[in-house]
């Protein structure tokens, strides 16, 4: 038994560049949105949507590497959707909360001014005589 390394029958295969599919035409490989998903998972994980987006991004990248462009497009679309929802939820909800607090403060200040006006009302002498 020959245990020498490297063996003579083993020839390294030349690296192949990925050629575009002839039926794909001008179709580009889909984006996997992995960086956006990682950002949403770490910083703005609203209702775990960032984690779901990360899972679909990884699936899209795996399918793209495997050469399954159709499945990669499908998973990429889902990852983009969940990333958009996570980003919108993490940006819109705090802005909505701030807007509600500001309008509440404005409303309470108007009520306080009206109550001060009510308690400082002075009855005139002509109103009591009648």
From TrEMBL:
InterPro entries: CD225/Dispanin_fam, IFITM_antiviral_protein. The keyword Nucleus does not apply. GO terms for cellular component: plasma membrane. It is found in: Membrane. Residues 1-21 have a biased composition (Basic and acidic residues). Residues 1-23 are annotated as: Disordered. Belongs to the CD225/Dispanin family. The keyword Membrane applies. One of its GO terms (biological process) is bone morphogenesis. It comes from the Eukaryota. Its main location: membrane. Keywords: Membrane, Transmembrane, Transmembrane helix. The chain crosses the membrane at residues 34-56, 85-108. This is IFM5 protein.
